[in-house]
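Q: Hi! First time asking for a complex rather than a single chain. Here are the components, and I think there are two in total. Is that enough to go on?
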Amino acid sequence: MDLILSGFGALANPDLLMLIVITTLVGTVIGVLPGLSGTTGAALVLPFTLTMDPISAVVVLATIYGSSTFAGCITAILINTPGTSASATTCLDGYPLARRGEAGRAIGIATLSSSFGGVISVLFLLFAAPLLAGIAYQFGPPEYFALTIFGLSMLATIGGGSPAKNLIAGAMGVLIATVGVHLATGIERYTFSSDALYDGIGFVPVMIGLFGIAEFLRQSTELGLKREVIGMKATRLPCWADIRRIRNTVLRSTGIGTFIGVLPAEGATIASMISYNEARRTSKNREEFGHGSIEGVAASEAANNSAVGGSLVPTLALGIPGSPTAAIILAGLLAQGVQPGPTLFTEQTNLLSALFAALLLGNILFIGVGLGGAKIYARITQMPVPILWPLVFMFSVLGAYAIRQSVFDIYITLAFGLVGFLMQRYGFSVVSLAIGLVLGAMVEQRLDQSVAMYDGNWLLMFTRPIALAFFALTLLTLCAPMLARWRQKRKATRNGSGQGTRF
Amino acid sequence: MRSTFTLRAAIPLAVVTLVALLAVLRAFSFDEVPAILARGMQPATFPQLVAGLVVVLAGVAFLQDLRRPPAPQTALPRIYYLTVLLMALFAALLVLNLFLVALVVVTPGAALMWGERRPLMLIIMALAPLAAIVLFDMVFEVRFPRSPLMNLYYQWS
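A: Yes, that's all I need. Here is the structure of the assembled complex.
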């Protein structure tokens, strides 16, 4: 409690408060533009923070991180193009809601879930950060490998299509992640002697292509269709009944997000996926998932935003960044002469309290930015299609180019736009491919490390209890649809025979 | 009504299988590293494992499609192919290093092709790439490929 009070005391400075408000707005703009992620935003403001005092610098970097992660949901909902990889799962239900004319409701749900997830996770971290850092310390390469495989197994049920096709898309994503130089040995793979492929295929251009360009192409196939007049419904915000309905989902997803965010990995993406799957498994309205479920939007957004706070734990307590953006925050801390480590929690309490208070304040500000702006953002869905989608195409191309300033990335975007369109047409999930690509390098690296750790005897991974538990969960996830079908069949047979005896 | 399985429905899975098999074969041509350097796995092992998994999953998906055939696809409208052609034109202009021209042509071009007829709106659509480029240049410090038009812009700014 003292930590919060002293944090808010540090933020009582009007200049710092103004800085948080401005940074939240800047982070929101960055998150909204496809191709510019929280990582880009943090990298852009990093040079400015060098001239600031440590507290202001950390506050700016943390606020950019939180606000851009939150804002990633806005484009995911409105134009089916996630601003960040962590929002890819939000597309599954957010965009169908927007197409139904309920963009305001979807953004409102996403805002409230993000904000709630963020606030609870920060409050939780205030008390549990050192303890969680200790748990994260128990995770070695086999545990991370098992966790990532568990995350990938969730792809089977994501998107509502055939599990086998979803897994094919995920595996193709992992395969695409192997393009480029193998980091452990320096051997080129699938580069076809092209310099442009030397560093691999960037995630952002692929994602923009799979979502933005593919949707642009899909819109062209629907030009002749008579559109429903959605009118003011698009700007309507969520009601109390909606909030009551997502309450449990948000609580559960916040827990999952905070825990997974603590693990030094691509926390927010895995967290949103696992939470989405869990929400779907436990929901009474399971059939709505993938077609515009507010619980789906809430699960994904609560989890990815709570993972933001979580990912700062290993960054601060162990000096191991929990995500690419956390790595930039770590660089900012080091540049300020702040040495992350367990002693940070006892020696730099001022800095920590300001950081946590800034995250809390930022999360509360999202409610204003999100709910206040939801009606304005939702109007985007009312723009005429021949105006909106060519503009989306233009921003997609610019976003794809901006990240590495490479024209080759635009070709990648266009190619994956076509691939994404065809995938959707033939029942393959583009979300699975995108997530497979994000996690691909990590899976290989962790497997490589595990195999090296056990001198080639990878079976020894199963002797580690945490890893074994994740492998068991993976098996359960993959077998769950078959088990459910078998149970259904048995039930039907029983009912059938029961009816038979009645006659 | 239950749809029947057609060979046409198997084409996407056949393409996936072909790509995965090519990936497996291509991986055989990767250089190998001495065991002392490759402490974990050889560079070809992981892609071969994943591509192999794709082939197996494609087989499973094929069997599933045989049991429950996917709904037949409707033909794509002409405007879709025209949009793809417009994207190809965009790519061609990029090859010629005409980034800004490509954007200025394709953005209003797509709007016009999709039914926008208001001249003022088309002019705004043609000017939108210029505004976006100024935004990306000034705010995000993104440098765009040099071309006669971009050189003019950089001289002006």
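A: Chain A has one domain: 2-496. Let me know if you'd like any chain examined more closely.
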